[in-house]
Amino acid sequence: MKVFFVSFIVVLVDQLSKLFVKGFNIPSLSMDFVGLQSGNSIPLISHIFSISLVENPGIAFGIDFGSNFKLFISIFTLISSLALIFYIFKYKKEQRSIRISLALILGGAIGNLIDRIFYGIFYHYAPLFHGKVVDFCDFRMFDFFIFNHTFGNYVFNLADVSVTAGVILLLYALNKKKLFPQIPPNKLKLS
């Protein structure tokens, strides 16, 4: 199915961007690229947007339930990705916007799943399924204080952007389908 190409592109761009930000060393191919050190930043738009290496041990927005839940989060993401593949096949005759939204969500989920499953092994800091997700898009908005916490600094990756865009597109497509259901041509009566 063509929509899986969308997922593939998301995973490819996401993983390449993370490898260039974090760096990599593959001695068998004589490849060594030094990325950013944790906490270092490259400002792109002064005081608004930077490339900053942050390794997220938990889930979205840096929520971390501790190392005991690491395996659970990885397996849950794997099962969710398999469910998305199932739904893409199940709804292959649905509107293209619904299938593309699911493909964007799938691509983002797989992009972050690769980090969780393999990065601990690849970067020699954790066993399989216990890696950290690489975030690097450091967006700083105005700070605001609520519930004894300051908000305003958001660090994410391209997989997160893909999941968010997919969810927004899915909500839009489902709402549009509900408001404007498809009417078969034989049911249309022109006066």
List the helices and strands and how they pair.
Elements lengths: L2 H20 E4 L4 E4 L6 E5 L3 E8 L13 H21 L5 H27 L10 E14 L2 E8 L1 H22 L12
Antiparallel strand pairs: 1-2, 3-4, 4-5, 5-6
Helix pairs in contact: 1-3, 2-3, 3-4
Overall strand count: 6
Structural class: alpha+beta
Strand order of the largest sheet: 3-4-5-6
- Calculate Rg over CA atoms: 20 Å
Shape: globular
Q: How many structural domains? A: 1
Query: Count of helical segments?
Result: 4
- Percent of sequence in beta strands: 15-25%
The mean pLDDT is 88
Terminal CA distance reads: 40 Å
Low-confidence stretches: none
Order of helices and strands: HEEEEHHEEH
Major sheet summary line: 4 strands, antiparallel
Helix content: 40-55%
Structure overview:
By secondary structure, the chain is of the alpha+beta class. It has one domain (3-187). It is built from 4 helices and 6 strands; from the N terminus they run H-E-E-E-E-H-H-E-E-H. The strands form 2 sheets. A 4-stranded antiparallel beta sheet has the order 3-4-5-6. A two-stranded antiparallel sheet has the order 1-2. Helix 2 (70-90) runs antiparallel to helix 3. The mean pLDDT is 88.
